[in-house]
From TrEMBL:
The lineage of its organism: Bacteria, Bacillati, Actinomycetota, Actinomycetes, Kitasatosporales. The keyword Membrane applies. It comes from Streptomyces montanisoli. PANTHER family: CALCIUM-ACTIVATED CHLORIDE CHANNEL REGULATOR, CALCIUM-ACTIVATED CHLORIDE CHANNEL REGULATOR 4-LIKE PROTEIN. InterPro entries: CLCR, VWF_A, vWFA_dom_sf. Gene3D superfamilies: von Willebrand factor, type A domain (3.40.50.410). Keywords: Membrane, Signal, Transmembrane, Transmembrane helix. The chain crosses the membrane at residues 397-418. It holds the Pfam family VWA_2. This is VWA domain-containing protein. Residues 44-233 form the VWFA domain.
Length: 429
């Protein structure tokens, strides 16, 4: 049998066109959303940079820590997205003396939080030289004031190469104080070639506010991570509420629709509870970030379970190699069975959400505090038809799969008939 490559290609193109034709109508444009960029509150980010004397150490890609930080800041400033008001605050930048009283007040606003003039900001950063003390606590308090006001997300990004030299106030206590005020402010910390004490203190600061800690040994890591955090502030739609999952469902915190943050130790299980009214569908997703070196094989599991321990549905994700975050999600519709003989509606069903991970830590990594966890919970109207509910992960995609099967079957019959006809013609000639 002779089969023309051109005809085979035409058949494949036809099938691809049919597939695209079915997929295209379901695509939504960016203009279909309910809001516009003008409706989004402006995010605020304050970069807090350690300019103490130890920043003159030359151990980052053959450069001093200060030089690497300046170059990284220049790259970040060039890529700050619209919708972000950026500010820069320093600590230890002006006083080189030995007076503890003076040195521990040495924090200043290098560039005010607001609309960004890139050249002006980079010029200000270029004037910095390693100088004084490391008053992290006072700098955090001042940065929190820099970010006051507004309805958008607020984020402090603290970059330091050493622990605080001015306690009291203890920086961890300051971070807890900020979090306790409920101002929805996140502090992310980065340690430049940190020792164990610096890593512990910066991790504590981040943990207290639901932020992340990252160790940095190269300039590219510094610019990449700071840029990522600035862009995350720009894309944030809501600020996570700190919660504390428990070891079993009976004592788990009750969650309402919203975004939550927690910490989970390696290979730990955390439980939460959600009441799902009749006629509503629970949609939940979880993301676990590896904010420190981890072993290459890992996974995250999100399960919905009844209060009696019966599994309802699960979502899971596994991976191998380098990653920053891994996520899983699930859907569970609670059907509306109507009213009973007394006219009462069906009660809400309590669903237990279990979050677990299979991360493991190499000997060089700390296992505490736990890994950052972000849990999103939403309740929407449940589907009226069984065909609308998620089934085997396809949901409404079943109709598309069925259509493609029928189209493929028909295309195969047509192609076979055409091939037989061409062979008959060839033989007759």
């Amino acid at each position: 049998m002779i089969i023309s490559k051109r005809s085979a290609g035409a058949a494949c193109a036809l099938l691809a066109a049919l597939t695209i034709g079915f997929l295209t109508p379901g695509a939504a444009s960016a203009d279909d959303g309910p809001g516009t960029a003008a409706d989004t509150p402006t995010a605020k980010v304050d970069l807090v940079l350690d300019v103490s004397g130890s920043m003159s150490t030359r151990d980052i890609d053959g450069q001093t820590r200060m030089t690497a930080a300046k170059q990284a800041f220049d790259q970040v400033i060039d890529t700050v997205p619209s919708g972000v008001d950026l500010g820069i605050r320093t600590l230890g930048a002006t006083y080189p003396g030995k007076s503890l009283k003076i040195g521990c007040k040495d924090t200043k606003q290098l560039y005010p939080v607001g609309p960004l003039d890139r050249e002006e900001a980079k010029t200000a950063v270029g004037t910095l030289e390693p100088t004084g003390w490391t008053p992290i606590g006072p700098a955090l308090l001042a940065a929190a004031k820099d970010l006051s006001g507004g309805d958008g997300s607020r984020r402090i990004v603290l970059i330091s190469d050493g622990e605080d030299t001015c306690s009291p106030p203890d920086p961890c206590d300051v971070a807890r104080e900020i979090a306790a005020k409920g101002v929805h402010l996140t502090v992310d910390t980065l340690g430049l070639v940190p020792d164990a004490k610096t890593q512990a203190q910066l991790s504590c600061i981040a943990e207290a506010t639901g932020g992340t800690y990252t160790s940095v040994k190269h300039r590219a890591e510094l610019s990449g991570r700071v840029g990522q955090l600035v862009h995350r502030a720009a894309s944030a739609t809501s600020t996570p509420v700190a919660t504390n999952g428990t070891g079993d469902c009976s004592t788990a915190p009750e969650l309402k629709p919203g975004l939550y943050s927690d910490r989970e130790e390696f290979a730990q299980h955390r439980w939460y509870r959600v009441d799902v009214p009749a006629g509503q569908e629970l949609r939940a997703s979880v993301s676990v970030a590896d904010d420190r070196p981890v072993n290459p094989d890992y996974g995250v599991l999100l399960r919905a379970v009844t209060v009696h321990g019966r599994e309802i549905v699960r979502g899971q994700q596994e991976g191998s190699g380098r990653t920053d975050v891994i996520s899983a999600g699930l859907r569970y519709p609670h059907p509306d069975t109507g009213t009973n003989s007394d006219g009462d509606t069906a009660p809400a069903e309590t669903v237990c959400l279990e979050v677990s991970n299979s991360y493991s830590a190499p000997a060089s990594s700390k296992t505490t505090p736990g890994l950052p966890v972000e849990l999103a919970v939403n309740l929407v109207d449940a589907p009226h038809d069984a065909s609308d509910a998620a089934a085997f992960g396809l949901g409404r995609g079943w109709w598309l799969l069925g259509t493609l099967i029928v189209v493929g079957f028909a295309a195969g019959i047509v192609w076979g008939w055409v091939s037989r006809w061409r062979v008959a013609i060839w033989r007759s000639n």
